[in-house]
Amino acid sequence: MSQHKFSLQNVTLECGITIPEVVITYDVIGDIQKNADKVVWICHALTANSNPEEWWPEVVGTGKLFDPEVTPIVCANILGSCYGSTGPMSINPINGKPYRLSFPLITVRDMVFVHEQLRKHLGIERIYINVGGSIGGFQTLEWECSYPGTAEHIVLIACSAKASPWVVAFNQSQRLALQADPTFVSEDIDGGKDGLKAARSIALLSYRGSIAYNLSQNDDRNDMVTGHRAATYQNYQGEKLVNRFDAYTYLTLTKAIDSHNVGRGRGSVAEALATITAKTLVVGIDNDILFPTNDQKEIAEHIPNAQYAEIHSNFGHDGFLLEWQQLERVIGEFVGRRS
């Protein structure tokens, strides 16, 4: 694996603001030149980085579904993130300080625009498989709507064609948690940690749902009145995110999620999806409460000749990261039949 940086000058965002320089950190696993017609591009989700071997270890690696010896892998840290790409913690060239709350609105289309420039920079004529789960699926879908024919296959996992009111409401609840932290509002150094911890706690409820919590966080003792496992788990997961992420990036990326709508400026969602020519697999997760399977079925219904597959997970939306054996089966069958 090798990590690189790609720079673009004067990037004008969908909101109309121009960023003088955008830097995108990306990873390449395998040799693109050796297998140029088999490149797999993985679009990562909300708080992930550009190294899918780290957060999707059962799917990416030698002898696995995406084997870099066979299918070179590219993953770019999204615009607005904090793992090396330009985002709220980057230095604003105008005043020499981190942007923080002054960072402009980023949309999924802005992320995809930068991905497309990177694809051209890398000399990839056509992506063999473009795959993404959750907000990664937003990127994969928007990419094929914005730049038709860029990929031969696309795999969309646990996502939707637009951000639903349900998703926006969860995101706004998390942003309210950030804004309730006075250190976030005052833009202190490392500000917003308490708010981010609370926001993560809210998000986890949407990722897992009641089935997962009742299975994995159940207390064995019958006499408890405090100190419950579920409460400890929420604290632990909040601290974990605070130690690797920042509140201003979280604000930026949740707003980017809200922006997602492939039908914007294209007549309607159905009309936009109908233009997709890539061979498409849409994967739903039966117990996903954040992106219920109706969201994926809508995508599959409107993309010509798309396939729909459903996997089972007691862990809801997080199944796209955890149910690797089922994903390996449905994606492997799809590519084997349609390539």
Characterization of the model:
Its EC number is 2.3.1.31. It holds the Pfam family Abhydrolase_1. By secondary structure, the chain is an alpha/beta fold. It has helices at about 50-55, 110-120, 135-145, 165-180, 180-185, 195-215, 230-240, 245-260, 270-275, 295-300, 320, 325-339; strands at about 1-10, 20-30, 40-45, 75, 90, 95-100, 125-135, 150-155, 280-285, 305-310. The protein folds into 2 domains: about 1-165 and about 260-339, 3-Layer(aba) Sandwich (Rossmann fold), CATH 3.40.50; about 165-255, Rna Polymerase Sigma Factor, Chain: A (Orthogonal Bundle), CATH 1.10.1740. It is built from 12 helices and 10 strands. The strands form 2 sheets. The chain has an 8-stranded mixed beta sheet with strand order 1-2-4-3-7-8-9-10, with helices on both faces. Strands 5-6 form a two-stranded antiparallel sheet. Strand 3, helix 1 and strand 4 (about 75) form a beta-alpha-beta unit. It is globular and about 60 Å long. The two termini are about 25 Å apart.
Which tags fit this structure?
eight-stranded mixed beta sheet, 2 domains, Rna Polymerase Sigma Factor, Chain: A, Rossmann fold, 12 helices, 339 residues, 18% strand, two-stranded antiparallel sheet, 10 strands, alpha/beta
> CATH-wise, what's the superfamily of the largest domain?
Alpha/Beta hydrolase fold, catalytic domain
Q: Care to count the β-strands?
A: 10
CATH names the topology of the largest domain as Rossmann fold
Q: Report the span from N to C terminus.
A: 26 Å
Strands of the biggest beta sheet: in what spatial order? 1-2-4-3-7-8-9-10
SSE pattern: EEEHEEEHEHEHHHHHHEHEHH
CATH architecture of the largest domain: 3-Layer(aba) Sandwich
Catalytic activity: L-homoserine + acetyl-CoA = O-acetyl-L-homoserine + CoA
Domain AB hydrolase-1: 39-321
Binding site for substrate: 200, 318
Function: Transfers an acetyl group from acetyl-CoA to L-homoserine, forming acetyl-L-homoserine.
